[in-house]
Amino acid sequence: MKHSLFRIGPAWRAAVLAITVFPLTLAAQDVSLVRNGARVYGNMCGRCHNPRSPLEHTDRSWTMIVNHMRIRANLTGKQVRSVLAFLQASNTDPGERANPFGETPPVNGGAAPDTILSTDPQVIARGRTVVQEGACLGCHVVQGQGGAVGPSLDDVIKRKGVEFVMKKLADPTFDSATSMMPNFGLTRAQIRAVAAYLATLNGRWK
Amino acid sequence: MVTSTGNSGVGLALLLCTVLATGLDAQRIIPTNQVLITGYGTVGYGYQTQGENINAFTSSMNPIFLFQFQDRVLFEAEFEFALEGGVTETGLEYAQLDFIATDNLTFVGGKFLLPFGVFGDRLHPTWINKFSTAPPIYGHHVSAFGAEPLLPILADMGVMVRGVANAGRFNLGINMYAVQGPSIEGDPTEEVPELEFLASSGDGNTNKMLGGRLDIALPPWAELNLSYFNGDYDDQNVLDFTGWNVAGELRTSGFELRGEYIQTRQEIEQPAGFPTLVRQGFYSQVAYRIGAWEPVFRWTQVFDSKLDGTVTDQGAWQAGFGVDYWFSPSIAFMAGYELNREDDLEIDNDRIIVHIAFGF
């Protein structure tokens, strides 16, 4: 006899569906919260001072600092929670961080990979997933979506070149000590995938 | 002049906010119960050729203590330790208790920086202020400016309500406070009494100074802030002191333009009546980030002081040229050159101030 979801009772079907969908929904909320937090952090904190690197403080310290700044910068509770989610998701040393995409990041976190762009559709699709599901859209616009804290990524390969983009992904402070972009600990494969995806946006490698 | 009706109005507003806060179900944030020390420090050097002889190194430290109880109560205090003439000066910039009532409402009590303009409560830390000195419309530390500052950085004892809201892409904020207010410094029989804004546990009269600020922000591009306060400064609750401030900011990638305009109106007691001394001025500052470098230019002007239209004090202006080098987001070397001029005097109070500011 074949066993399938459609042969069990409605209650079990609902339960299985809920167990499957709930983590996905939660993950989507987390991504959305972190992405929104990145946008609020750049927009609201950057009005008065350089946004500081998330690596400067622990989760607990950020909780107090964000509450302190809530009074100064007129942040709502919702904004505070999203900023905290962003800072606490980004303040782990890249070498020690559990990679959200299930891979082991490079130990030094800063070595740039080679600069040969892949045209493999699977690699490009993977890069798109990293951009869409990471916090990139909190600060950058990609195809009309995203925040305005950082520059648009649509033509970043054309403007800055492949090598710059890959170095920036590997070590966001390599070109500017005051960069607020966190080091997300992307693997070399992910960096190559993101660059390959971004290269398709300006049409040069379509 | 503030009347008892005005005080009652603030009381009613505070009561209304309390009722609203009690009725609203705020979402809780991560609960904690802990202590954190943060703050900033500055080491620098100043040189002035004429006027007051300045040729000295400086050093100061401003630790900020944060104590949080669970998720709704935060006590925060900033101290300042600075060397002045071989003596260590200490000061309490603020010591306030914040009660986070809801996502949108916070009550503040104690000594706090007044939300009057934006320099005082947001920009005055040395690592945040992009020029190596404060705008001279605010009296903060040593100034070589030719005219008296319009106001000090205001901090006072009292209570405050802060409300915030999101409206589409706009962030709105409103602050209302009641504090002790100014009092007369020195001889009260002087023709134009000097005022002091020292926060103290006592009050020079039974009147409280009332004020507030409205913030309209379109982050990250622009912000507009409108501030106002009013209170009596004499012990008879007769003489009125009023302040207005309009502040604004425009930002694009790497470029920042900000400015503030202040006007103060002080009633004076004279046999013929109560004429008003009007003082006003502004500063405007532009900065542009080029990699780790950030050139800064600041223009400050204080206009002639007028008592019922008659000039009592000449105005002055300052042009400030500076350049910052950022080692990290909160550590910078700042070099500034000030051209200080009074309108009717040939006095050269130019000076150079360099320092390293460290936010930690």
Question: How is this structure best described in words?
Answer:
The complex is a heterodimer of chains A (206) and B (360). Chain A is mostly helical and 206 residues long. Chain A has two domains: 86 residues, no CATH class; 81 residues, Cytochrome c-like domain (Cytochrome Bc1 Complex, Chain D, domain 2, Orthogonal Bundle), CATH 1.10.760. Chain A has eight helices and two strands. In chain A, strand 1 and strand 2 form a beta hairpin. In chain A, helix 1 packs across helix 3, helix 2 packs antiparallel against helix 3 and helix 7 crosses helix 8. The longest helix of chain A is centred in the N-terminal third of the chain and has 36 residues. With 360 residues, chain B is mainly beta. Chain B has a single domain, classed as Porin (Beta Barrel). In chain B, 7% of the residues lie in helices and 59% in strands. Chain B is built from two helices and 22 strands. In chain B, the strands form three sheets. Chain B has a 16-stranded antiparallel beta barrel with strand order 1-2-3-4-5-8-9-12-13-14-15-16-17-20-21-22. In chain B, a hairpin with a 2-residue loop joins strand 14 and strand 15. The chains are: A mainly alpha (206), B mainly beta (360). The interface between A and B is large, with 39 and 51 residues.
Parts with pLDDT < 50 across at least 5 consecutive residues of chain A: 1-6, 17-27, 97-113
| Total of domains of chain A | 2
What gross morphology of chain B would you assign? globular
Class by alpha and beta content of chain A: mainly alpha
What percent of the residues of chain A sit in helical stretches (DSSP H or I)? Answer: 40-55%
Kindly provide the radius of gyration of chain A, computed on alpha-carbon positions and rounded to a whole number of angstroms. 19 Å
Total strands of chain A: the figure is 2
Architecture of chain B in CATH?
Beta Barrel
User: What is the H/E order of chain A?
Assistant: HHHHHEEHHH
Largest protein-protein interface? A-B, 39 and 51 residues
- DSSP E strands of chain B, number: 22
**Net shape of chain A:** elongated
Total DSSP helices of chain A: 8
Order of helices and strands of chain B: HEEEEEHEEEEEEEEEEEEEEEEE
Low-confidence stretches of chain B: 1-6, 14-28
Question: What is the overall number of helices of chain B?
Answer: 2
